[in-house]
Each structure stands twice: as structure tokens, then as C-alpha cells.
Write a structure and sequence with these properties.
Blueprint: H1 7-31, H2 38-52, H3 63-91, H4 93-99
Helix pairs in contact: 1-2, 1-3, 2-3, 3-4
Length: 101
């Protein structure tokens, strides 16, 4: 995460480190037993943080924690929606062309 943004990258990395355990626990609750998906969901959340705050100062606490948990919730909602589309596509031939890679 070091590309010339100096302290900003360090702040983003510190935010990721500080919130990883709480986000993993939150993801486990939201994904209800889909344990293998947890690291991917948390990683996507951190990627969103980096993209969002690449050019401006990251949020201070508690706003940073709130932002991360909201972003993680949104990533999980997207995950479940994709799963629903894939399940529907498995039984609907018209959707198979759209949903299945």
C-alpha cells in the first residue's frame, strides 16, 4: 500500500489492521456458516476503503469503524444477491446465460 501517498497509506493499513478481527466476526454472522467466504468479503471491504480514501484523509474513529461495517454489510448483501441469482439460474434456462460464467 505504499505508492507515494506517504502517511495516508500507513493510516489506511493501520485502519485495516485495527478492524480486521471485528469485521471478520461481523462477516461470519452475516454469512451464516459460509466461513470460506469471510476472508474474501473482508478483503473486498478493505479494497473499498482504499479506493474511497486514496485521495483524501481516512476517517477518524468512530466514523471509520462505522464506514467499514456499513461497507462490509453492503458487500455481504451483494454476495447473497449473487448467490440467489446463481440458484435461480441453475433452474431457469433463460437465466443460465446471464448468471453462469
Amino acid at each position: 500500500m505504499h505508492d507515494g501517498n506517504g502517511g495516508r497509506d500507513g493510516q489506511l493499513e493501520a485502519a485495516c489492521d485495527a478492524h480486521r478481527a471485528a469485521l471478520e466476526a461481523h462477516a461470519r454472522r452475516l454469512l451464516r456458516g459460509r466461513e470460506p467466504e469471510v476472508p474474501d468479503v473482508v478483503q473486498e471491504t478493505f479494497e473499498r476503503l482504499v479506493r474511497r480514501f486514496r485521495e483524501e484523509p481516512p476517517l477518524k474513529e468512530p466514523a471509520c469503524a462505522l464506514w467499514l461495517h456499513t461497507a462490509l454489510t453492503n458487500v455481504c448483501i451483494s454476495f447473497w444477491r449473487k448467490q440467489l441469482v446463481r440458484r435461480r439460474a441453475a433452474t431457469d434456462p433463460t437465466l443460465q446465460l446471464v448468471a453462469m460464467p
